[in-house]
Write a structure and sequence with these properties.
alpha+beta; Aminopeptidase; 6-stranded mixed beta sheet; 6 strands; 47% helix
Length: 209
């Protein structure tokens, strides 16, 4: 990275907060919270730091305004991930008041049936490349930044001969990822919410479009 870690983290966190704010699932879980923006900023900063620390953060040609957070599952640090989640919960409790916490828990309960990170096990028996977050700042949209961002991840997966997996709650993203060889393999739905989770897999050895 051309910029120092602190500058990268700050920029990634800023772009991520906007991306989280636009995401249907995050918007639904944070609906009605008075300190919504403060929580988004804090969580984004923590995500950025964690991703950098665990070598999951991939920025576009040194420009953190576009980034991908993802990793080969064989390189995951489960202990670090658990510790990270604990820190996230603690940060949430320090930011939100009682009313906000109650609202947050109620929102999470309502949408938990359409939030799964274990779904790939149903389709992939071994390791795979898991794309967790992708975000492109509005100033770079329409410039081909997303293609440049995702191509190295696809190249890595093809070289290692492993599939790729991702989940999104934004239906618009489905068509975008399909252009790069991803296939919608499962849609998770619940009668308790109109939000759906779209589960996508990209097999190895196929053209990216």
């Amino acid at each position: 990275m051309k910029k120092n870690d602190s500058e990268v983290i700050q920029t990634v966190a800023r772009v991520m907060a906007v991306s989280f704010g636009e995401d249907p699932m995050n918007s639904a879980q944070l609906e009605g919270l008075k300190k919504r923006e403060q929580l988004l900023e804090a969580h984004s900063l923590m995500h950025a730091r964690h991703a950098l620390r665990c070598n999951m953060l991939h920025v576009l040609d040194g420009d953190p305004r576009a980034f991908l957070i993802g990793q080969d599952t064989s390189k995951e640090h489960k202990g670090r991930q658990k510790l990270f989640m604990i820190r996230m919960y603690l940060k949430t409790f320090t930011i939100l008041g009682i009313k906000d916490l109650r609202r947050l828990f109620a929102n999470i309960k309502r949408h938990r049936k359409v939030l799964s990170f274990d779904w790939p096990k149903e389709f992939i028996p071994g390791r795979y490349y898991h794309i967790k977050i992708t975000a492109v700042d509005k100033s770079l949209r329409g410039t081909g930044a997303f293609r440049k961002l995702i191509t190295p991840a696809i190249d890595y997966a093809n070289k290692e001969q492993i599939p790729m997996a991702l989940e999104t709650h934004n239906k618009t993203n489905v068509a975008i990822y399909e252009r790069f060889g991803f296939e919608l393999v499962k849609t998770i739905q619940s009668s308790e919410t109109p939000i759906e989770q779209y589960c996508m897999i990209r097999k190895t050895g196929i053209d990216s479009g």
